[in-house]
Amino acid sequence: MSDIKYKRVVMKLSGEALAGDAGQGINPPEIRKVAEEIKEVHDLGVEIAIVVGGGNMWRGEAGAQMGMERAQADYIGMLGTVMNALALQDNLESIGVPTRVQTAIEMRQVAEPYIRRKAMRHLEKGRIVIFAAGTGSPYFSTDTTSALRASEINADVILMAKNGVDGVYSADPRKDKNAVKYDTLTHMEIINKGLQVMDTTASSLSMDNNIPLVVFNMNERGNIKKVVQGEVIGTTVEG
Ligand code: UDP
Question: How many angstroms separate the alpha carbon of residue 59 from the centre of ligand 1?
């Protein structure tokens, strides 16, 4: 454990990370790649909680734009994250990693309900806990869920694994060639500059509860391990 910087982490996996090139649906071979990397970190003895997104299935905001009631559309989004969580659980368990899924909306036939103390006990016992159904409330995001759960379980850091982007930039590097990468930022700077990292609710919750965030590219193999071992990659957000 000596070369571990973060002992307990909350990892935010967007729905996109579980989808194939199409960016939609569940792609088991794609999930396998992520699962194998997570296993490597788990093998180091790091306690890992994962918050899964659902953007590969459905986004409440998009539903609302098409005329649905926002809260109803958000519940669909939260249920989408549960499907992702089950797929990730299946994959992790198939390579020998013990896991538990906890949902913020009860569905006891498929997962445990979210119980903070039980989640912490699972982590202590070396199980990966996958948090599904977001916060259980509409109008929030799974980024905010990450900040909330990280605060609740006293995580050392939120690891924000991005698809193909290696940190936080002043503008979208895929669209603007003058975009500059930040090595370090504060949560307040993210809010003030309107940077597209997390939504404002997630940033302010992380700031208020002093939770650092590391944003890095998960398409480069070994990056999750590098971050937990303290190698400086991506963008670190603190303070
Ligand atoms: N969602 C919600 N409350 C939460 C978390 C998520 O209503 O606490 C809904 C919301 O509609 C969101 C969808 O679930 O669009 C999927 O989550 P998110 O967009 O955060 O997924 P990601 O972009 O990380 O894949």
Answer: 6
Helical segments of the chain, H only:
28-43, 60-65, 70-94, 116-124, 142-152, 187-193, 200-208, 223-228
* Distance from C-alpha of 19 to C-alpha of 36, rounded to nearest angstrom: 16
Cα separation, 215 vs 12, in Å, equals 10
The tokens describing 137, both together, are: 């409330």
Domains of the chain, CATH where assigned:
8-237 (3.40.1160.10)
Q: Is 174 annotated as a binding residue?
A: no
8 A C-beta contact, residue 237 and residue 215: yes
- The mean pLDDT value for 80-85 works out to 98
Ligand 1, pocket-test mutation among 52, 74, 76, 145, most atoms within 8 A of CB:
74
pTM exceeds 0.90: yes
Contact 216, 169 (CB under 8 A): no
Cα–Cα distance for residue pair 217/223, rounded to 1 Å: 7
**Ligand 1 mean position to 215 CA, how many Å?**
19
Ligand 1 centroid distance, CA of 200 (Å): 14
H/E element, 102? strand 99-103
Place of tokens 């071992």: 229
User: For the chain, what percent of residues have pLDDT higher than 70?
Assistant: 99
